[in-house]
Amino acid sequence: MPSLAQRAFCEALGTAFLLAAVVGSGIMAQQLAGGNGALALLCNTIPTGAILAVLILVFGAISGAHFNPAVSLGFALRRKLAWPIAALYIIVQVLGGIAGVWTAHLMFEQPVWQMSITARTGQGQWLAEAVATFGLLLTVFGCVARRPESVPYAVGLYITAAYWFTASTSFANPAVTIARSLSDTFAGIAPAGIAAFILAQLAGMVAAVILSGWLWHEA
After folding, report:
1. What is the pLDDT of residues 14-54, one digit of tens each?
2. Distance from C-alpha of 19 to C-alpha of 156, rounded to nearest angstrom
3. pTM of the model as a whole
4. What pLDDT, in 10s, does the model give residues 175-201?
5. What CATH superfamily is the domain 4-215?
6. What does the radius of gyration of the chain's CA atoms come to, in whole angstroms?
7. Closest CA to 126 of 210, 199, 208, 41
8. Which residue ranges make up each domain of the chain?
9. Which among 132, 137, 130, 133 is positioned nearest to 215, based on CA atoms?
10. What's the CA angle centered on 113, arms 55 and 37, to 5 degrees?
11. Distance CA 176, CA 194 (A)
12. Dihedral through CA 122, CA 76, CA 68, CA 15, nearest 10?
């Protein structure tokens, strides 16, 4: 069993890489898409799904590769992760996500400290975040229960699809939501929208925990 320090470090580093990919590819997409929003979104989607699969393959055997407070809370509620460890994971995920955003800014020679002005709000967006997180957690729990080796690819593919079938482009992650508020770029979200997004994500997570307990109660 890896040490707690190793596990926490992997959660922080993995979340940092995830946010660097989300924000960095968003900046690159804006620069290259010539104002074509659909093309920019596609250019943001593919790296995000790809990096998720890679990160889970790299860090899954050490920390479980959550990179997402909703996932850590979900495993804690299912009694698969101790609450103190879940709390530590959440803290380092948020800090790692912020570090990843700042790293992306530095790579593209932008100001490190930014606040997004992109408004993402409304009932459709909130429902989208609940649905996105619900589906993500069901993907994780279902694959862990029946096909653990498929988790990296299933999660990467799910997020790739959810970018397009949800109105919110599937943040599905409180740490991602917080970190993206600190980037006034293609991937940003205005700070005023954070609380509602996170509440919707937690609602989707709880629904997934309840349903997964019925579908895969032995897992």
Report:
1. 999 999 999 999 999 999 999 999 999 999 999 999 999 99
2. 14
3. 0.96
4. 999 999 999 999 999 999 999 999 999
5. Glycerol uptake facilitator protein. (1.20.1080.10)
6. 16
7. 199
8. 4-215
9. 137
10. 65
11. 10
12. 160
3-state SS, one letter per residue, for the chain: CCCHHHHHHHHHHHHHHHHHHHHHHHHHHHHHCCCCHHHHHHHHHHHHHHHHHHHHHHHHHHHCCCCCHHHHHHHHHCCCCCHHHHHHHHHHHHHHHHHHHHHHHHHCCCCCCCCCCCCCCCHHHHHHHHHHHHHHHHHHHHHHHHCHHHHHHHHHHHHHHHHHHCCCCCCCCHHHHHHHCCCCCCCCCCHHHHHHHHHHHHHHHHHHHHHHHHHCCCC
- Helices 69-77, 123-146: axis angle to 10 degrees equals 60
